[in-house]
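Case study B.
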Amino acid sequence: AQSVSQHNHHVILSEAASLELGCNYSYGGTVNLFWYVQYPGQHLQLLLKYFSGDPLVKGIKGFEAEFIKSKFSFNLRKPSVQWSDTAEYFCAENNNAGNMLTFGGGTRLMVKP
Amino acid sequence: SAVISQKPSRDICQRGTSLTIQCQVDSQVTMMFWYRQQPGQSLTLIATANQGSEATYESGFVIDKFPISRPNLTFSTLTVSNMSPEDSSIYLCSVVTSDRGYEQYFGPGTRLTVT
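Model:
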């Protein structure tokens, strides 16, 4: 069965610090990869996605992620975080088999002003 | 993208009762899913709601406990039956809208507390 791992469960950063959240997936075939964000009290929103092509994907709000096939990774990055980035971040994948997503455990990010 | 609404947004229910959650989408969509997010945890897929046929359940979820209806391409319901405190979760509806079928959009969720 596919699995997605997010090794950082809680991250605390100061504003303007750089962010990198780890995500590793297990499926060895073709995958589609996603990062979702859940701001406090709000529902899940898609930050960015990778289907194919350029492994460096740019999303909304200055986020980007890099697909590294050899490492089964899809880490999320942002060069300078803001207080408003405080949220929970979920990595997810599907392997085209049925469109259902397999989610990682989530990373709770707190940005101190 | 699609605009998804869920009713109710939250409820507090007694053990042994059932609750039906509604999911309405503003456009016709091929695929709809129901997920559960237990307190402090990630999302787990419950089932795929298939229009015109029975839902497809993931391991650990059964139709008797989580019956699902999908009468048309814009609407689905999930019932949580014979509830216990362990069913306290956020239940989310999601849809796939793009032709490539890989993007999912999520509803606001229904926060269920079972006492």
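Residues 24 and 71 of chain A are 8 Å apart (CA to CA). The remaining cases will be described in the next quarterly update.
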